[in-house]
Amino acid sequence: MRTEADVCVDGRVVHVSSLDRVLWPAAGVTKAELLDYYVRVAHALLPHVAGRPVTLHRFPEGIGGPHFFQTRTPPHPPWVRTATLSFPRTGKTFDAPVLDDLPALVWAANLSTLEVHPFLGRVEALDRPTAVAFDLDPGPPAGMRDAAQVALAVHALLEDAGLVGFAKTSGSKGMHVFVPLNGDVTYEATKGFARSVAARLTAVSGGAVTDRMSRALRPGRVFVDWSQNDPGKSTVAVYSLRGTAFPSASTPVTWPEVESVARGQLPELRFGPDDVLERLERLGDLFAPVLSLRQELPPA
């Protein structure tokens, strides 16, 4: 097997290397297989990341070695677009990568980027999030079933507010619920809404949910992370792989699937690369409405 090559990807020459490097030792999955997955899933993944700055979660030696989140654009070909991010609160200004197309996605994957984390705002309107994101993170011994139960509670509150939400697995132990807006709304409004929902869930959960940032409060509870709704935060993309012991991906799921897990009828929702590709062929992109559905938040 060739371990290094210049490949033509949609008219761009992309250099790929260390193709035989094992990134997931327990599964024997190599960088070549990582690249193959991202090429095959690109038709569904790219619409959700194109036009947005992204953070690259890189694992240069695989999941057993050092890893880091990189929002500053590493050395790159001239055809990889970048976006300037500026945060007055910290005084930081830098350029972040934008993965608009397949060559850019292959370039990022070749950097052993296992995870792609897009921002909620688009390049042309970085201060306008296109969705509200709820990150439901169970603290052991709480697990996926607990996260699914909280996801259903979020779903019910959204319905009461006249809103539609879409669920996906985090690709790890939790779940995400996205509320598409695709209008002219500020982070102040989306973060305030998310925080109010998290507070309400905490108040009625009988101790099963927390909306507090303190890690000491998380064991045995599901943390509803409302803070993801911030101009400086990025959330793992739908269809992105994760740096877990075995390859898994953040995958859209139906509400009946979430309900089955919440009731204990399914043990968990966990999908590997082959599962994701099979579901896409059978179900299409269940997260597609997040790209276009226009909704308005209720008055504060």
TrEMBL record:
Domain DNA ligase D polymerase stretches: 30-287
Organism's domain of life? Bacteria
Matching entries from Gene3D superfamilies are given as: DNA primase, PRIM domain (3.90.920.10)
Report the Pfam families cross-referenced here. LigD_Prim-Pol (PF21686)
Q: Does the keyword Protein transport apply?
A: no
Task: Keywords in alphabetical order, please.
Answer: Ligase
GO terms for molecular function, please? ligase activity
Q: Which PANTHER family match?
A: BIFUNCTIONAL NON-HOMOLOGOUS END JOINING PROTEIN LIGD
The molecule here is called ATP-dependent DNA ligase
The answer on whether this UniProt entry bears the keyword Membrane reads no
